[in-house]
## 1
Amino acid sequence: MLLKELTEASGVSGNEKEVRDLIISEIKDYVDSYKIDRLGNIIAYKKGKDIGKKLMITAHMDEVGLMIKDIDKDGFLKFMTVGGIDKRILVSKPVLVGKDKLPGVIGAKPIHLQKPDERTRALNIDELYIDIGARSKEEAERYVSIGDYVIFDSEYVEFGEGLVKAKALDNRVGCSLLIKLIKEIKDLSFYAVFTVMEEVGLVGAGPAAYEVDPDYAIILEGTLCYDMPKLDTHLIPTYLNKGPAISLIDRTTIYNKDFRNKIVEIAKKNNIPYQFRKTSMGGNDSGKIHTTREGSITATISVPCRYIHSPASVMSKKDYDSTFALLKEILYQFEREEI
Amino acid sequence: METKVFLELLSNSKGVSGYEYPLQDTIISAFSKYLDNVSVDKLGNVIGFKKGTYKDNNVKIMIAAHMDEIGLMVKDIEDNGFIRFTNIGGIDPRTILGQEVIVHGVEDLFGVIGSKPPHLQEPSEHNKAIKMEDMIIDTGYPKEKVEELVNIGDPITIRRNVKNLLGNRIAGKALDDRAGVAALYECMKELNKIQHEADIYFVTTVQEEVSMAGALVSSYKINPDIGIAVDVGFGATPELPISTTIELGKGPAITLGGNIHPNLRKKLVDIAKEYNIPSQVEVTPGPTGTDARAMQITRDGIPSLLLSIPLRYMHTSVELLDVEDVRNTGKLLAFFVASISNDNLEGLLCY
Amino acid sequence: MNINFSLLKELVGIYGPASNEKTIREYITKEIKDYVDEIEIDSLGNLIARKKGNGKKIMISAHMDQIGLMVIDIDEKGFLRFTNVGGISPFISISQKVVFENGTVGIIYHEPVDDISKLKLSNMYIDIGAFSKEEAEKKVSIGDICIYKTEFEENENVVFTSYLDDRVGCFIAIEAIKKINNPINDLYFVFSTQEEVGLRGAKTAAYKIDPDIGIALDVTAHGDTPKAKRFAVGLNKGAAIKVKDNSIICHPKIRELLVNIAKENEIPYQMEVLEFGGTDSGAIHVTKEGVPSGVISIPTRYVHSTVEMASKNDIINCLKLLIKFLESEINI
């Protein structure tokens, strides 16, 4: 199952190879051309009806994770975070280290040995380390190198009423949607771009947009979802099971009003549930894309994901399906030149 | 001239971010001996060009080191002639208290950075760092004289000449990144003795410390196939965790991480081993805080590398390094760029 | 030089928050179209007006966007919740009137908080006097942006109003367009968009134009009010010539040229070293192969409040300096 394979693959920002190879194997028979650019972005092109406007649809391949920065004298691995990870979610988690996915754990001092006030303080990254079971530095060095990337050990699980738990829903969900679009849309010309290193500063998006130079771009994302009970509605960025989240504004873009309104119109006309992303926190590849060269008009459409940037992020299959339905309708409108 | 002599000359010269012009002549005249031409672009970057042996559509490699240094700037003149100032680039205010400075006005003025004497401070003040807002530069002149010689906006540098310490070690200001510029010089001297197919652009960039404007526009202009930044890395000292530092005397650090092209990096590491040049590893997850960051995202992307010369006490006026590391960096650069050809480029750049 | 401030009075109140500058763009187009050779609008909505000449290609940028508030939620009782578009201070916003594109007026207030110093925008709301969610939704939609309601005041010394930032820059640019005949340089006047959220419009406009020289017109801060943070710029001391801010170290040759022109023409000026903030030149100077750029700043008190105040003499002197600069032979 595609989303399972994508989320379980390893692709920390700067080390997207496994995901890239997987995506290429999925799309190569459905695109007219593709290339891997100088930063590792996949830039693919599907030829169909030429609507006189260059459309680019993009999803970033990378996930947040860790990177080994030192192997200490006893064989414990010190690490740093890659991308925005709340350090408090790291303790007491299993991980997979390096290309060979060596199992390890991020341990913690037993509660018995802690003073009462210690338990209220968040642990610093410097106090954490990964234990792979090595008995010495030399043994660890046989299996691990400084610079190895580390992913959470978290497999794809379907649970509850149509929910999915996996790591990296941000943004394998976007990649999965884009792959599906590539396979199913036949009559429209567009560029499908899978970018690198979005999580560490939207690095891949600028050069990809420079190369493609689109007029319009649709950015597919997994976005934050925090729908706790009894919260004021304006403090809830998105809800699960209320459909794709359409971005209004974030740290890197104020989304074009006309394009956004058109998308809402399409959702309403086709009875597809939708919601607005009600926070201006965060950013995504749109930030770089819409200001590259002479600029372009962008929209970001996201699947809401609870517990984003943690080993156990959660999304709803219903949201995934309605997001895909909305995207297809948007592309039909492009094809009919009604945008 | 000897690379160490060039480095001392550079360190003792002035060139605060945005005001690198005083360095241009020194760099141009040193570079011109080894390069086919040297020019200056619209923002003041010095761009030197050395043609390779290949005929046309040649591989282009850009090597960049920033020539700007952090410094200070006059922001106001008090009624008694004291100068109020702000920082250009990242300056820890604790490192400038009690320093001697040069205010680069109509002429260079000697000054001292002072503040309230400890005798007059409350006991609670003693443990607090003094803010730049509360410091002044005393040039010894009254307001009228200061206003004749100094304008708001004039740059200020710390008055420091290079100190020769034990062995190959020297300390001085602006070794970040004049050491990189010296490494470029060492590289071009080395390249004069060996064949290289690729065209090489040696760029001493401006304003890296504030905005990377120099690297952005020069890499746009040159549009190289490979971009290599040469900067400084955190040299090990007792209070720093080992995992965040690199050691003096053990050669340049070759950075590993998202800003760096993985295959190119492997080639660089292989070259270091092949030619017995000492090197170390430095790990950075995302964009590095160097010209390599600017180069990587220019136009449709430039595969980038970063070499870091180990440097202690970064962003103080007593930055300390081992000159042997500068020489080894230059040599490694030379052997690496000489190993790149039109034939092997594609293979090296693939993912 | 005598200038009529009634145009400035019009400009400051016209709706145009960042990303939604259509109304102000249309107004400015009408004002300038008889005085320029070409007009273009790009993907980000920048208004680019060219006065043809043979010399250097100069891009003059004044941003037409304003800070404002975007509605992100309408609650059950009809209160509007919002996020900021550009730099909005919670404290300045309390009890201010706001107005939406369709004319709907509201006021900003806040939930009761224990410690007012910790007030955040998420504790605040806009009250448009609707008595239900349905009623509110008839007037306002999620995604709509409102601006502070503007009241322009003036006396013989100063003007004060919301949105001198940067409608005063636009005002100076429009006056320059009207007063310059037969330009010796090739002048591209850009009324840029989305400066307040990150110099976004200027970036794409500069890429398109690829100028030889860039000059921005924007407001700068002040240091001349009681216990103000130390800053050498104050009202009525002349056009401020920027040395640096957080987005640019102005090209020394451009800066020196501006200083020399001011001296030669007896235009009062002051030097500006700003320790925060940015202007369109921050985006222009790193375009393509690099663009030597500078900034002429209008000293302004209380920036990003509803009572931004500037000296009329300073505004006139900035205009004089700009015109003389654009009419010089510039050799960089």
Note: Chain C has a mean pLDDT of 97.
## 2
Amino acid sequence: MLALFRSIFAPPRDLILIIAAAWLGLALSEKRARRYMLSPEMLNNLVFVLMIAFLLGGRLLYAAEHLSAFAQNALNLVSFNTDLFDPAGGVAAAAVAGFAFGQRRGLPFWRTLDALTLFFASLSVGLGLSHLASGLAFGQETAVPWAIQLWGAARHPTQIYEIIAALGILGFLWSRKSSPRAGGDFLLFVALASASQLVIGGFRGDSLLLAGGLRLQQVVAWAVLAAALISIEYLLPARAPAPAAGADTAGAAPESGNTARRKVRNAGPAVSKAKAPPRRQTKKSRGPG
Amino acid sequence: MQPIQRRLISGLVLVAGLLLIFFSADKTGASTAGRIPAPQTGFLAPEFTLSTPKGERIALSELKGRAILINLWATWCPPCRAEMPAIEKLYEKYQGQGLTVLGVNATVQDNPLDIVPFVQEYGLTFPILLDETGAVARKYELRSLPSSYFINRDGTVHYVVMGAMTEALLQTQIEEILASSN
């Protein structure tokens, strides 16, 4: 079964799994966009910008690192060869482009990240599947009954651990109500994802080692986890302003994506609601909280 | 949950994380460390001995100290044909610096009569080896043709490419294995 899966999705076909996960994640995020007072169309545009920037940035940075190879034939810049790519450069370019796009369109920073949380969570599942297909991020040798035969030894199936953890996080985030604090959902995802990497990192067989045999991936995961927990506790605003009544129902959020205009439109009901005498909240009126 | 409880739990999680890092430290050194033969980055390149069409035998172990590109190909495979001119060009450019290219023909799934005309058609000057039993394809877990394995001077796998390579990719990987230490 595993051999068949690895054969079907052998690199570079493993990228299909990541693309499928991104597509699914975007669909889930769009479904939830209005909870964060964002239009699905705007979220779609943002993800499109992120992906284009990721592809362009990754290729251009790789070319910059290997100028001599590309100088002889500039057409390699548009090659379909996926190995001519710097993933870290792609992520950096996507982050810069996404931030610029958000600023230009006046998107609220934390709420936009919250809205993208399911996209990132789904992408993590795709990444785990891709690792399983390519054999990357493999585990260390072991005699546990559930070990898989990979790269000449019986190993911890760390890729399967990764998929299970990512699916669990995706399911948990999907099933829970949105955090009332802007940024709360995104930082919760970061904390859970880094905690899972912290645990799984201990079973990896390809770890970069620091002094005393400490694993770099675990140290980085712990630092990210600490940053996420501290941010949740001390940096986020106590509670985001309550969204307009019914903000999680279709049509509540404006389609234009212009936040300034949106604020004006939403100000009325939000303010009048705040001034209204307290009443028992219904499930719907509680909105994302 | 009260903020104080939340902070306590966060603190405990971080302390547990630190303990986990220390307890799962790998005291034996890098986990793979080029000890096991496998067709994956960081592992020892699986050993093989094959013959050329002229009957000369070449063993991978004899080439230790040289940067090696192992290219698995077949005459019927269009991407293999597409990348051959670039491989030959870069072999001529870098062989003086210690590059060896081994063109391993997947003979078990090819027509042996087509091999020599193919080599002549592309003017290939690097050694062509015949994998007549499919043993090398199995050892290198061949999943698609062409597949290329860049081997460092110390005999460990530096990079694996499945599918056709462009000249730019070939050059960057060749320069990296040439720069590797023995």
Note: The radius of gyration of chain B is 22 Å.
